[in-house]
Structure formats: structure tokens, C-alpha cells
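Title: Comparing notes on inverse folding

I've been comparing how different people in this forum approach sequence design from structure. To keep things fair, I'm posting one structure and asking everyone to reply with a full sequence. Here's the target:
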């Protein structure tokens, strides 16, 4: 085995490929990785909260214990705003765009994030994650427009999974790379270079309790997958997008959160969840659609809009489109 490559070194080497790069983007990425380490530390302690003091109680130093998703949100802001490089931020946790300090107003980038996705899994020790996307600032506009860009304009997207180990996976549009946190040195080390999703897989991930609320095309698709003539599919549903996505990215298959009669646009958010994951999957050789079109082509209208998300290997995603076309 060669010497380990740290995330910091990797980011620096990537930066050197761009003649005009001044390091702003690298700094943002480094700071997200820093926030991820802090969040990871707290996530690992989560089970101890009941022993050391409950969420609502005040801890020994007088600080109020915070919910982990609120805490994670604060860590992301604290890591990004002082860089002065981010003119706008939006978080799934917060209704409107986040205020930035004066020195950040000239920043050239806009960052969107879901600080702790899969929050219903926190209390039961199941993997959760952080998702982020970075856009270049749109010139001659207020910063909100920079946040409302179509996903195809992303310059970087990634996620952190807090699982049996903590991993940082990201792409700048030239390959997807995964780094595993080595707690003994406190660094993310390159463990999964140039990740490619298989062209088809054996996993489908969907919350099937919604079956009777789906359109016929979705029901027929799932029925077909279950009796596929060429291979035996298996169902996996963790209920954390990051964890379900990460597994399918490595093993192949499809993740679906389609619309249903109760949730007309599905459940997941375009800006914080669907777009970053779609950018990653396309860079890994897969696909992401809403049933009619490519996720990355959708022009967002508001920060928190939801979108049906079908994402994964090419074969399963294309098949889904065919079924929707045929059965509605
Ligand atoms: P959250 O943003 O409130 O955590 O919800 C998003 C999560 C995703 O991580 C996951 O894929 C989905 O909700 C699961 O939904 P369901 O509980 O309907 O199965
Ligand atoms: Mg979420």
C-alpha cells in the first residue's frame, strides 16, 4: 500500500490544476470537512446524551444541550462564514437564506446544505449524513439568485456519512472520490478513488408503505423489479438518504422517493438533497430524474421546494422512465 493521501493534500493538488485558482474554493471545502469532523464527533457521542444530560437540560458549564441537527447547522455556518468567501448560504434547517457577515458579501461562492439528514435515525443509532452543494456566485444579481441555480451549475457537491466509519465523498465534476476519517490522526484519507456506479445493480430502495398512494406506473415498475427475469433484486431502506444513496452508489441499484397522492412532489428537497446527489451520481456514471426530466435541469423556484427523486444506476433509472411513460 502506498502512503495515505489526506483530503487536504488532495484538495491542494486539485487546486494546482487550475492556473487561476486563488484558493477560495479549496478553503470552503476544507472548512466543510472541518465542520464534518466536529459533527462526526458529536454524532458519535449522541447515545451518551441520555446519560450525560438530556437535550433540554443544561450541561455542567451552563450551556444548553442542543439537538444534533441544530448543532450541525451551527457548525456549518461557523465553519463557512468566517472564510469571507461565501456570499450566501441556505440550509434545510432554516426557512430563509442565512444571513452572512459583512465581509462575506463579496464572496464568490454560494453554499447550500442539509446539515444532518435522516434526523429520525439519530435516536436509534442508525447512519445519518450531511449533504452540501457549492455554486459560483451569479454576477449582477442578489445572492439569492446564486442559491436558486439549476443543479447543472454546481461546481461541487458532496456528502458526509456518519456510519460505522465517517466518510467524506465529493466531486467537482471530474470524478467522485471518497475519504474515510481516520480518528487516530483526525484526517480524512483517500479510500475510494474515482467511484463509478455499476450500470445496473440488485438493490432497489423505496418506502413501499406508500404503494397504494403511487401512480400506476410506479406500482407496475416495482412489481416488475420484484419479478425481474434476469436477476433477483433485494429491497434495502434505511430511511437516511445519505446511507441509502452511499450503499447504492458503491453496489449499484436505484433509490426512489417518487410523488404519491399525499405528497405531490415527493418528500425530498431539490436544493439541499436531490441536486447535490444528482450531481454526484452523474459524475459516477449514473442518472437522476424526477420521472419526467433530469434533476439537474430543473430551475428551482423556491429554496425549500420538494421534488420526486429517482437516482442510481442507468439501467434501473431508464427503466423507471419507460414505465412512467407507458403507464403514467
Ligand atoms: P429529513 O430531512 O427530515 O431527515 O427527511 C429526509 C429523509 C431522507 O433521509 C430519507 O430518504 C427519507 O426522509 C425517508 O423518508 P420516510 O420516513 O418517508 O421513509
Ligand atoms: Mg433532509
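Reply #1:
Here's my take.
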Amino acid at each position: 500500500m502506498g502512503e495515505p493521501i489526506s483530503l487536504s493534500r488532495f484538495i491542494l493538488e486539485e487546486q494546482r490544476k487550475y492556473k487561476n485558482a486563488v484558493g477560495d474554493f479549496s478553503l470552503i471545502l476544507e472548512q466543510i470537512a472541518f465542520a464534518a469532523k466536529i459533527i462526526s464527533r458529536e454524532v458519535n457521542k449522541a447515545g451518551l446524551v441520555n446519560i450525560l444530560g438530556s437535550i433540554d437540560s443544561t450541561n455542567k458549564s451552563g450551556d444548553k444541550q442542543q439537538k444534533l441537527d441544530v448543532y450541525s447547522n451551527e457548525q456549518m455556518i461557523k465553519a463557512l462564514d468566517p472564510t469571507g468567501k461565501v456570499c450566501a448560504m441556505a440550509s434545510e434547517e432554516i426557512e430563509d437564506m442565512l444571513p452572512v457577515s459583512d465581509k462575506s458579501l463579496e464572496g464568490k461562492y454560494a453554499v447550500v446544505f442539509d446539515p444532518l439528514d435522516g434526523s429520525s435515525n439519530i435516536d436509534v443509532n442508525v447512519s445519518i449524513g450531511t449533504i452540501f452543494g457549492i455554486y459560483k456566485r451569479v454576477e449582477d444579481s442578489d445572492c439569492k439568485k446564486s442559491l436558486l441555480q439549476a443543479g447543472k451549475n454546481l461546481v461541487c457537491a458532496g456528502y458526509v456519512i456518519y456510519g460505522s466509519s465517517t466518510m467524506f465523498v465529493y466531486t467537482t465534476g471530474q470524478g467522485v472520490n471518497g475519504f474515510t476519517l481516520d480518528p487516530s490522526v483526525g484526517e480524512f484519507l483517500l479510500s475510494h478513488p474515482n467511484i463509478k456506479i455499476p450500470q445496473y445493480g440488485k438493490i432497489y430502495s423505496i418506502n413501499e408503505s406508500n404503494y397504494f398512494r403511487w401512480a400506476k406506473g410506479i406500482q407496475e415498475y416495482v412489481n416488475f423489479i420484484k419479478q425481474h427475469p434476469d436477476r433477483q433484486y433485494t429491497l434495502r431502506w434505511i430511511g437516511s438518504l445519505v446511507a441509502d444513496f452511499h450503499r447504492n452508489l458503491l453496489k449499484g441499484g436505484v433509490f426512489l422517493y417518487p410523488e404519491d397522492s399525499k405528497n405531490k412532489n415527493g418528500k425530498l428537497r431539490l436544493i439541499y438533497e436531490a441536486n447535490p446527489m444528482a450531481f454526484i451520481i452523474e459524475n459516477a456514471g449514473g442518472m437522476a430524474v424526477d420521472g419526467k426530466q433530469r434533476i439537474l435541469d430543473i430551475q428551482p423556484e423556491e429554496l425549500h421546494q420538494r421534488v420526486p427523486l429517482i437516482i442510481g444506476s442507468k439501467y434501473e433509472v431508464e427503466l423507471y422512465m419507460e414505465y412512467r411513460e407507458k403507464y403514467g
